[in-house]
């Protein structure tokens, strides 16, 4: 799969929505994030122009000389959500601290409005 490095924000959002409905069609708590994806992708785009998809389900980006990924986590909030996690140095891109959890549409909108505030 192409890493979508040069893709528009709309294309990236489409990629994740297509994945959700193709692979998680029977998983309502995963599909519920579909309405937030565009806001999160656009918020990340405000932070950086450097982002790509290293795995089908993750959006990786750099900000303030650090690397991060946005991914779904079933344990975020009561019904799952999108987490932004720092990637630390090491083999296999190990996860560091969770920077923020987005667990509803209002939190996605707040992230879009001021993404730098979570860092």
Mind explaining what this structure looks like?
The chain is an alpha+beta fold. It has one domain. Helix content is 35%, strand content 29%. It contains 4 helices and 5 strands. Strands 1-2-3-4-5 form a 5-stranded antiparallel beta sheet. A hairpin with a 7-residue loop joins strand 4 (81-87) and strand 5. The termini are far apart.
Distance between the termini: 30 Å
Tell me roughly what share of residues is in helical segments.
25-40%
**Percent strand:** 25-35%
| Strand numbers in spatial order across the main sheet | 1-2-3-4-5
Give a short account of the largest sheet.
5 strands, antiparallel
What number of domains? 1
Q: Which oligomeric state applies?
A: single chain
β-strand number: 5
Residue windows where pLDDT falls under 50 for at least 5 positions: none
Count of helices?
A: 4
Rg measurement, Å = 13 Å
Mean pLDDT: 85
Helix-strand topology string:
HHHEEEEEH
Defining traits:
5 strands, single chain, 119 residues
Short structural description:
By secondary structure, this protein is of the alpha+beta class.
């Amino acid at each position: 799969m192409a890493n979508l490095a040069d893709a528009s924000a709309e294309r990236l959002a489409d990629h994740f929505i297509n994945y959700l409905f193709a692979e998680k069609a029977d998983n309502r708590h995963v599909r519920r994030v579909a309405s937030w994806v565009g806001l999160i992708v656009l918020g990340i785009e405000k932070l950086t122009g450097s982002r790509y998809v290293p795995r089908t389900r993750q959006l990786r980006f750099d900000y303030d000389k650090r690397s991060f990924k946005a991914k779904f986590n079933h344990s975020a909030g009561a019904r799952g959500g999108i987490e932004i996690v720092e990637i630390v140095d090491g083999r296999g891109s190990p996860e560091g601290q969770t920077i923020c959890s987005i667990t509803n549409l209002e939190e996605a909108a707040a992230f879009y409005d001021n993404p730098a505030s979570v860092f």
